[in-house]
Amino acid sequence: MNLHEIPIESLSLNPFTKMKDQWMLIAAGDETASNLMTASWGMFGVLWRKYMFQIYIRPQRYTKQFVDACDLATLSFLPETYKNALKICGTTSGKEVDKWKLSNLHPYYGYGTTAVAEAELVIIGRKQYSQWFDPKLFYAKDNDSRCYPEQDYHEMYVYEVIQVLGKDTCLPDH
User: Fold this and answer.
1) Structural domains present in the chain
2) Confidence label for 169 from pLDDT (cuts 50, 70 and 90)
3) Has residue 117 got a pLDDT over 80?
4) SS3 50
């Protein structure tokens, strides 16, 4: 992994296009066991006077057990050339196949967690809070009916950003 620590204040990215168009890989675990999943939903911001990110995971996702068991998780953003690998990680279960091998991606163990070695940007977070979506709390009821026809509501996880690793292309003026 040819990444180095970069100050979060100098990070140059558009979170909307990074997540919606490029997607990201959520990973958790360590050398003994880890898993990853593709995600296109998430949030970045400031909460409780800290830089934070939020991820959302449905109960049937195998990666959820790693996220639940670990204090740390990573968001890995890969170059566009890895779109097929991200599709594989979003459509197959690590419970049934070795997604690392199938997607031809490689785990990077360090910083107390797992990231994706091919990433151009990795955000490492420490879990601060989690809560299940409650269908009674939807103001826009169409979000419930459209996104949860099987009532498999996401659990929201809030992470404090504790480290950002990137290639020089993630810095301004590159």
Assistant:
1) 4-170 (2.30.110.10)
2) low
3) yes
4) strand
